[in-house]
C-alpha cells in the first residue's frame, strides 16, 4: 500500500493522540481531583483529632496486609510503570488505582509522612494503560499511553502541566529525554490539569518575594546551595532504600513493617510534642517562603519520611522533598546572603531534581509555580543538584546512563 503523504499522516497522528490524550486526561484528572479532595478531608480530620496518631501502627498493618493479600502484583508502584514503558510485559492491573488511592488517604489520615505524587502518577498510568486494550493499538502506542498517564497524573496533582509533561518524558532514563511521546504527554498534561480545575481543585500558591539580580556572588551562592540540595536528595533516596531493604530482612511478613514504622512515627510525634513533620506539611512549606524557620526542620521531615516510606506506607516522595528543599533553602539563605523566599523556592525544586534525577521537569515546575524571575537560579540549582545526587534516585526502575556528564 502506498504510504500517505506526510502532512496527512501527521494530521491523523494528531487526531489519534488528541483523542487518546483527552480520555487519559479525563480519567487521570478526575482521579486526581477525587484523591485531592479525600486527602484534604483526611488531613483536616487528623489535625482536629491529633490523638489518632496512636492508631498509625494499626493503620500501617492494615495497609501492609491489603497489599500483601491483594496487591503484590502492583506493589512496585511507580517503578512498575517505568518497567512497563521500557520493557513491556502485561497491562498494569486496574486494582493499582483504588489500592494506592485508599492506602495513601489512610496513611495521611493516621499521620504518616508521605506525599501524593506517587498516588497520582500510579492512578494516571494505570487508567491510561487500560486504553491499550483498544483495537488497533500496538506495543509502541502502549508505551506512549503510559507516559501520557504519568504526565497527566503529575500535572493534575500539582497544577503544573508543563512540568508534568516533561516529567513523563524525563523520568525513565537518567540523562536522557524521550521525544517519541512529546505531543501526547503535553496534551494529556494540559488537559488533565484543566479537568482538575473544572472539578474545583485549588492548588497552593507560593510567594517567593523579590529575586536578586544575577551577580557573581548570587550565582556562586546558588551553586553552593545546589550542591547541598543534591547531596540531601541523594541521602534521602539512599536512606529510604536502605531502610526498606533492612525492614524486609528483619520482618519478612510484610504487614509488620508499616506496623513497626507507624509505632516509631507515633512515639516520635509524642516525644517531640509536634505534628510538624507528618502529613504533607504544606503550612510549613508556605512559612519557609516568608520567615526564618528552625534550621533542623528539613532534617526532621527527612527522618519522618524515610521511616514512613521505608517501612511501607504508601503515597509518594515528592511533596516531602518539596518540604525538605524549601526548609533547607530557608536555613541556608542567611548563610549565603540570599532572600528566604527565593532560596526556599530554589530548594523546593532542586532537592526534587536531585532525588528524582529530573532537572528539566524541576526547572519548568519552578517557572510555573514561582514565575520567570527565578528561572535562571532554579535551572542552575536543579542542574547542580542533579549532578551531585549520584546515579541512584527515588525510582529504582530508572535506567542509568554511564555518566551524568558524558553520553
From TrEMBL:
Organism, scientific name: Pseudoduganella armeniaca
Gene3D superfamilies: Clc chloride channel
Keyword Oxidoreductase included in the entry's annotation: no
Name of protein: Voltage-gated chloride channel protein
Any Pfam family hit: Voltage_CLC
CDD domains: ClC_sycA_like (cd03682)
Transmembrane segments: 20-39, 51-68, 144-169, 181-202, 214-238, 259-278, 298-323, 335-357, 369-389
GO cellular component, one term: membrane
Matching SUPFAM superfamilies: Clc chloride channel
Matching InterPro entries: Cl-channel_core (IPR014743), ClC (IPR001807), ClC-type_chloride_channel (IPR050368)
Amino acid at each position: 500500500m502506498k504510504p500517505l503523504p506526510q502532512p496527512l499522516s501527521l494530521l491523523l497522528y494528531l487526531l489519534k493522540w488528541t483523542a487518546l490524550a483527552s480520555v487519559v486526561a479525563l480519567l487521570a484528572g478526575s482521579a486526581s481531583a477525587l484523591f485531592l479532595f479525600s486527602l484534604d478531608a483526611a488531613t483536616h480530620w487528623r489535625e482536629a483529632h491529633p490523638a489518632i496518631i496512636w492508631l498509625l501502627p494499626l493503620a500501617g498493618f492494615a495497609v501492609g496486609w491489603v497489599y500483601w493479600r491483594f496487591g503484590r502484583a502492583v506493589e512496585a508502584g511507580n517503578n512498575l510503570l517505568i518497567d512497563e514503558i521500557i520493557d513491556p510485559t502485561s497491562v498494569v492491573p486496574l486494582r493499582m488505582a483504588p489500592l494506592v488511592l485508599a492506602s495513601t488517604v489512610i496513611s495521611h489520615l493516621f499521620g504518616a509522612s508521605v506525599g501524593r505524587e506517587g498516588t497520582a502518577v500510579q492512578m494516571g498510568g494505570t487508567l491510561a494503560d487500560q486504553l491499550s486494550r483498544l483495537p488497533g493499538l500496538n506495543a509502541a502506542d502502549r508505551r506512549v499511553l503510559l507516559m501520557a498517564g504519568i504526565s497527566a497524573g503529575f500535572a493534575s496533582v500539582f497544577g503544573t502541566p508543563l512540568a508534568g509533561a516533561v516529567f513523563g518524558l524525563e523520568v525513565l532514563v537518567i540523562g536522557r529525554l524521550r521525544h517519541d511521546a512529546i505531543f501526547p504527554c503535553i496534551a494529556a498534561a494540559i488537559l488533565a490539569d484543566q479537568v482538575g480545575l473544572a472539578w474545583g481543585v485549588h492548588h497552593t500558591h507560593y510567594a517567593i518575594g523579590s529575586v536578586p539580580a544575577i551577580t557573581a556572588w548570587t550565582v556562586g551562592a546558588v551553586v553552593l546551595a545546589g550542591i547541598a540540595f543534591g547531596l540531601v536528595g541523594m541521602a534521602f533516596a539512599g536512606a529510604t532504600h536502605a531502610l526498606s531493604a533492612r525492614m524486609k530482612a528483619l520482618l519478612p511478613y510484610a504487614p509488620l513493617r508499616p506496623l513497626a514504622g507507624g509505632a516509631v512515627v507515633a512515639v516520635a510525634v509524642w516525644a517531640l510534642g509536634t505534628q510538624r513533620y507528618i502529613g504533607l506539611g504544606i503550612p510549613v512549606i508556605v512559612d519557609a517562603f516568608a520567615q526564618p524557620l528552625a534550621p533542623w526542620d528539613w532534617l526532621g521531615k527527612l527522618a519522618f519520611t524515610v521511616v514512613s516510606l521505608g517501612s511501607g506506607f504508601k503515597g509518594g516522595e515528592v511533596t516531602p522533598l518539596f518540604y525538605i528543599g524549601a526548609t533547607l533553602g530557608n536555613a541556608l539563605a542567611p548563610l549565603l546572603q540570599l532572600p528566604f523566599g527565593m532560596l526556599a523556592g530554589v530548594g523546593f525544586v532542586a532537592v526534587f531534581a536531585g532525588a528524582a534525577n529530573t532537572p528539566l521537569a524541576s526547572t519548568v515546575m519552578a517557572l510555573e509555580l514561582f514565575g520567570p524571575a527565578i528561572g535562571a537560579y532554579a535551572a542552575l540549582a536543579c542542574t547542580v543538584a542533579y549532578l551531585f545526587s549520584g546515579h541512584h534516585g527515588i525510582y529504582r526502575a530508572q535506567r542509568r546512563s554511564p555518566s551524568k556528564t558524558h553520553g
